[in-house]
Automatic annotation (TrEMBL):
<dbReference type="InterPro" id="IPR051161">
    <property type="entry name" value="Mannose-6P_isomerase_type2"/>
</dbReference>
<dbReference type="GO" id="GO:0009298">
    <property type="term" value="P:GDP-mannose biosynthetic process"/>
</dbReference>
<keyword id="KW-0342">GTP-binding</keyword>
<feature type="domain" description="Nucleotidyl transferase">
    <location>
        <begin position="17"/>
        <end position="299"/>
    </location>
</feature>
<feature type="domain" description="MannoseP isomerase/GMP-like beta-helix">
    <location>
        <begin position="313"/>
        <end position="360"/>
    </location>
</feature>
<dbReference type="GO" id="GO:0000271">
    <property type="term" value="P:polysaccharide biosynthetic process"/>
</dbReference>
<dbReference type="InterPro" id="IPR011051">
    <property type="entry name" value="RmlC_Cupin_sf"/>
</dbReference>
<dbReference type="InterPro" id="IPR006375">
    <property type="entry name" value="Man1P_GuaTrfase/Man6P_Isoase"/>
</dbReference>
<dbReference type="InterPro" id="IPR001538">
    <property type="entry name" value="Man6P_isomerase-2_C"/>
</dbReference>
<keyword id="KW-0413">Isomerase</keyword>
<dbReference type="Pfam" id="PF22640">
    <property type="entry name" value="ManC_GMP_beta-helix"/>
</dbReference>
<keyword id="KW-0808">Transferase</keyword>
<protein>
    <recommendedName>
        <fullName>mannose-1-phosphate guanylyltransferase</fullName>
        <ecNumber>2.7.7.13</ecNumber>
    </recommendedName>
</protein>
<dbReference type="GO" id="GO:0005525">
    <property type="term" value="F:GTP binding"/>
</dbReference>
<keyword id="KW-0547">Nucleotide-binding</keyword>
<feature type="domain" description="Mannose-6-phosphate isomerase type II C-terminal">
    <location>
        <begin position="365"/>
        <end position="478"/>
    </location>
</feature>
<dbReference type="InterPro" id="IPR054566">
    <property type="entry name" value="ManC/GMP-like_b-helix"/>
</dbReference>
Length: 483
């Protein structure tokens, strides 16, 4: 795609990448969890899926990206974008998940405030694309169709009878754009027999979930088909507030929006739907089996990551983000090891991991949704040991960052600095604590931890008391505007 392919002579139809970063990716459990889902992990390279997605939008002719995300993930997203040099993103915070239609409506309304003719390129934050050149060619066609007021999706050439994707039936070629087609029909995810039938017919394509359309075109269709979505989100955008570098949608109005996908809300009902076929190695990485397909393999068809030893294994995916994992004499298995969970599945049952996560949630297991390492805007903490009336944690604080000014009703804390320097507030005192030094915080003391240095601060925290839950925190002051 040339530099001019995404511009018009008038210059009014800028192309804006819109990245949707929602969902928990539970089929990639135990790596992907609600607190740290798959888009924040480097699953295929040294960059995370979010970073790879954002970098696709760093092309001549494209405007500043808009990212719509869960408010709890805002600092993760900002930090990961900064790591790859993207500092101009507009990050929009959803107070609660309402599926893709409200998220896209919010982005469209914000973009339309400045330029209703701007063309949105909507994509999920957690997909993989191998052939960037083929993607750019398809995008240029989609943009041309969008300029003619079509709502365009990308249809992927099926490689196998996949039951995890929806399908698109391709109709007649558009008169206005050669290589783009009308959408004859959207099909739900099929069973295996129906999927086998579909891939034998060249009219059927996988639905990638990416869309290209003018902001005002999308908004007019959302208003026509889902007026409650339109009105609720419009009010949420109008009443939004600024929160540091983020735009926070109104809780009152956004939560009134129906929970509905853009497919159900618009794509399956509009007469403006078009599709651009593509074959650029797209995958939504919706299961461990899909990740096995995308990962380089050894001579026996095994894909591995981390501290892994194999003997007589074939066609397996084995990943360890924690202790050493050994696999002997098995075939077609998925084995994933983290610091607090192990998942083993047959590759043919990879889609069923989501069902197991649902069972864990029903059983009240914290591992279903949260990792042992918990990320915060100032750094992270992880539990090392937990016993009766005591817990030991490792805490890491980024340079120049600080925790909230807080107190606890049920626990006392002892901090031991093992790397860096800590500035500790304890009631009316300010104490500099250096490596191999410690400070005691009695129950009820008002305290804060800061890292005034240029290197990360690492300390060991020993908690003691009758209740050690994270909800025993009374925040008195917080630079990150948390409750």
């Amino acid at each position: 795609m040339s530099d001019t392919a995404l511009n018009t002579k008038s210059g009014t139809q800028a192309v804006i990448p819109v990245i949707l970063s929602g969902g928990s990716g539970s089929r990639l459990w135990p790596v992907s969890r609600g607190s740290f889902p798959k888009q924040f992990w480097p699953l295929l390279s040294d960059k995370t899926l979010l970073q790879e997605t954002a970098l696709r939008g760093e092309q001549p002719g494209l405007g500043c990206p808009v990212v719509v995300c869960n408010a709890e993930h805002r600092f993760l997203i900002a930090e990961q974008l900064r790591e790859v040099g993207i500092t101009n993103a507009r990050i929009v915070l959803e107070p609660t998940g309402r599926n893709s239609a409200p998220a896209i409506a919010a982005a469209a309304l914000l973009i339309a405030e400045e330029n209703p003719d701007a063309i949105m390129w909507v994509m999920a934050a957690d997909a993989a694309i191998k052939d960037q050149s083929a993607l750019q060619t398809a995008l240029a066609l989609a943009v041309d169709a969008a300029r003619n007021d079509y709502i365009v999706t990308f249809g992927m050439q099926p490689r196998k009878p996949e039951t995890g994707y929806g399908y698109i039936e391709r109709g007649a070629e558009l008169e206005e754009v050669s290589g783009a087609y009308q959408v004859a029909k959207f099909l739900e995810k099929p069973d295996s027999e129906r999927a086998a039938e579909l891939i034998r017919d060249e009219r059927y394509l996988w639905n990638s979930g990416m869309f290209v359309a003018r902001a005002h075109t999308l908004l007019s269709e959302i208003e026509a088909f889902e007026p409650r979505v339109y009105s609720s989100v419009k009010n949420a955008v109008t009443e939004r507030t600024s929160d540091m570098d983020f735009e926070r949608l109104s809780v009152e109005h956004f939560t009134q929006s129906p929970d509905i996908s853009i497919d159900y809300a618009v794509a399956e009902r509009t007469k403006r739907a078009a599709v651009v076929p593509g074959d650029f190695g797209w995958s939504d990485i919706g299961s461990w089996d899909a990740l096995w397909e995308l990962t380089p393999k050894d001579a026996d068809g095994n894909a591995t990551s981390g501290d892994v030893f194999l003997d007589g294994a074939k066609n397996c995916y084995v990943r360890s983000d924690g202790i050493v994992a050994t696999v002997t004499g098995v075939e077609d298995l998925i084995v994933v090891v983290t610091k607090d969970a192990v998942m083993v599945s047959h590759r043919d049952r990879a889609q069923d991991v989501k069902k197991m996560v649902a069972r864990l949630v029903a059983a009240g297991r914290p591992e279903a949704l949260s990792h042992n390492r918990v990320y915060r805007p100032w750094g992270f903490y992880e539990s090392l040991i937990q016993g009766d009336r005591f817990q030991v944690k490792r805490i890491s604080v980024h340079s120049g960052q600080k925790l909230s000014l807080q107190k606890h009703f049920h626990r006392a804390e002892h901090w031991v600095v093992v790397a860096g320097t800590a500035l500790v507030t304890r009631d009316d005192e300010q104490i500099m604590v250096r490596e191999n030094e410690s400070v005691y915080l009695p129950l009820g003391a008002i305290h804060r931890l800061e890292n005034p240095g240029r290197i990360p601060l690492t300390l060991i925290e020993v908690q003691s008391g009758p209740y050690l839950g994270e909800d025993d925190i009374v925040r008195i002051e917080d630079v990150y505007a948390r409750a």
